[in-house]
C-alpha cells in the first residue's frame, strides 16, 4: 500500500476456520474479516486468524467506529482494521486514535495474542503504531463531500469505497454502477492520488475488477468466500449442460 502497489484480497464472511485455511492456499495479499455484516464474533475471529497463512495480511472490518471493537480486533492479532461509515475528519480521527497507542491515540495496552501472550510485548508496543493499518470506509454522500479532509488525516493509511451503501446514500439503491456513483468514485480517486493515499473497493468478477484497477484502485477485494463457493459450483454444473 505504501508503494501504491496492487494488493488483491477476499472478503471472509463464513465463520469457520477451514474456509480461511483453504483460501490461504492461494496467493491472496490480504483477507477482510467482516464483523459488520457477517456472523463473526470476537471468539470466532480469533480462530479464523489462527487459520490464516502468515503470508496473508489480516484486516478486520469492525462493526462500527468504536474503541472496544477496534482494540479487541487488534489485540487478538489482526494487522489492521477497516472502519465503516467514516463520514468526516472527526470520525477519521477517532478511528486512528482507537487504533494507536499513546501519544498518538488512546488504545489500551492489553495486546494479549498480538504480543505473543505478552512474551513479546516490548517489541509489539514499540512497533504497533507504525505497523497497524487503518483503512476508512467511504459509504455516504457526506463522506464524499468530506473526502479530502478524511483521507488527509495522519494515521489513515488507505480508504475503501463501499459501493452498495454509497449508491444507496446517493439515491441509487441497488445500483452501484450508476453514473452518479461512478462519477463520485472517479472524483475521489483523483483526490486520493493528489493526497497520496491508496484507495480500494470491491468487485465480484474479473472484468469489473480489472476496469477498477485500470482507473487506479489498488486495494482490491476481488470476491468473497461465499460467492467463490457459489461461483465454482455454478460453473461446474453449467459445464454439464450441453
Task: Quickly describe the structure.
With 242 residues, the chain is of the alpha/beta class. The chain has 11 helices and 8 strands.
The tally of beta strands, per DSSP, is 8
Oligomer: single chain
Q: H/E order of the elements? A: EHEHEHEHHEHHEHHEHEH
Shape: globular
Number of domains: 1
If you compute it from the alpha carbons, what radius of gyration comes out, rounded to the nearest whole angstrom? Answer: 18 Å
Main β sheet profile: 8 strands, parallel, barrel
SSE class: alpha/beta
- The name of the CATH architecture is Alpha-Beta Barrel
In whole angstroms, how far apart are the ends? 45 Å
Fraction of residues in β-strands: 15-25%
* Annotated CATH homologous superfamily: Phosphoenolpyruvate-binding domains
> At the third CATH level, what is the topology name?
TIM Barrel
Helix amount, in percent? 40-55%
Would you kindly provide a written description of the structure presented here, covering whatever features stand out?
This protein is of the alpha/beta class and 242 residues long. It has one domain: TIM Barrel (Alpha-Beta Barrel). Helix content is 44%, strand content 17%. The protein has eleven helices and eight strands. An eight-stranded parallel beta barrel has the order 1-2-3-4-5-6-7-8, surrounded by six helices. α3 packs parallel to α4.
List the helices and strands and how they pair.
Layout: E1 7-12, H1 17-23, E2 30-34, H2 42-51, E3 57-61, H3 67-75, E4 80-83, H4 89-99, H5 121-131, E5 133-138, H6 141-145, H7 147-151, E6 158-161, H8 163-169, H9 179-195, E7 199-202, H10 206-215, E8 219-224, H11 225-238
Parallel strand pairs: 1-2, 1-8, 2-3, 3-4, 4-5, 5-6, 6-7, 7-8
Helix pairs in contact: 1-2, 3-4
Amino acid at each position: 500500500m505504501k508503494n501504491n502497489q496492487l494488493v488483491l484480497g477476499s472478503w471472509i464472511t463464513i465463520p469457520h476456520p477451514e474456509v480461511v485455511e483453504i483460501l490461504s492456499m492461494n496467493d491472496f495479499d490480504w483477507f477482510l474479516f467482516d464483523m459488520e455484516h457477517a456472523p463473526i464474533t470476537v471468539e470466532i475471529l480469533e480462530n479464523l486468524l489462527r487459520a490464516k497463512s502468515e503470508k496473508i495480511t489480516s484486516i478486520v472490518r469492525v462493526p462500527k467506529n468504536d474503541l472496544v471493537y477496534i482494540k479487541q480486533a487488534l489485540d487478538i492479532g489482526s494487522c489492521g482494521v477497516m472502519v465503516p461509515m467514516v463520514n468526516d475528519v472527526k470520525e477519521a480521527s477517532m478511528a486512528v486514535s482507537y487504533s494507536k497507542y499513546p501519544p498518538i491515540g488512546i488504545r489500551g495496552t492489553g495486546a494479549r495474542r498480538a504480543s505473543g501472550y505478552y512474551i513479546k510485548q516490548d517489541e509489539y508496543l514499540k512497533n504497533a503504531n507504525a505497523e497497524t493499518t487503518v483503512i476508512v470506509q467511504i459509504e455516504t454522500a457526506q463522506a464524499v463531500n468530506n473526502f479530502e479532509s478524511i483521507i488527509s488525516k495522519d494515521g489513515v493509511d488507505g480508504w475503501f469505497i463501499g459501493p452498495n451503501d454509497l449508491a444507496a446514500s446517493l439515491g441509487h439503491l441497488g445500483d452501484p454502477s450508476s453514473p452518479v456513483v461512478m462519477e463520485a468514485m472517479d472524483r475521489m480517486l483523483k483526490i486520493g492520488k493528489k493526497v497520496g493515499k491508496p484507495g480500494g473497493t470491491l468487485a465480484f468478477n474479473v472484468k469489473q475488477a480489472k476496469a477498477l484497477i485500470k482507473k487506479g484502485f489498488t486495494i482490491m477485494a476481488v470476491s468473497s468466500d461465499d460467492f467463490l463457493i457459489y461461483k465454482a459450483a455454478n460453473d461446474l454444473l453449467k459445464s454439464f449442460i450441453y
